[in-house]
Amino acid sequence: MLNRPRLLSRLFCAFMTAIAAAGEVDVAAVSFQQAADGSYRFDVTLRHADSGWDHYADRWEVQTTAGKIIATRTLYHPHVDEQPFTRSLSGVKIPAGVSQVVVRGHDSVHGYSGKEQRVDLSANPPS
Q1: What is the CATH number of domain 22-123?
Q2: CA pair distance 10, 111, nearest whole angstrom
Q3: pTM score, whole prediction
Q4: What percent of the chain has pLDDT over 70?
Q5: How is the chain split into domains, by residue range?
C-alpha cells in the first residue's frame, strides 16, 4: 500500500537535493584596473553549476574587508552552458583609505557562499 506522507517526503527531499546540487558560488578570479578618474573596473569570474532559473548565480559584490558593500553587479539570467563565466563592472568608487576589498558571489538558493577573493588594490597601481 502506498504511504502518501512518506512518498511526499521523499519527493520533497529529491527536489531539494536537485536544487542544492548546483552548489555554492565560487569567485574563481578577479582582475581590476583603475581609470584616470580614480574609479575601478572589476572583471570577476564566477564558477557555479547553474541549473536554470530556480538556482543560478545572481550577483557578485565588491565589499570592504569590514563587510560594507561598495558595488554590486547583478546577473539577470542563468549561465547554464557558460561555466565559468566572467562579467565586468566599471565606475566602482573605492572609499578613501581602503586598500583591500573582498569580492563575493551570491546565488538564488544559498545566498552568499562559496569561495571569496580578497583583492589588494595596491598590487596594480594606476598607470
Answers
A1: 2.60.40.730
A2: 25
A3: 0.76
A4: 75
A5: 22-123
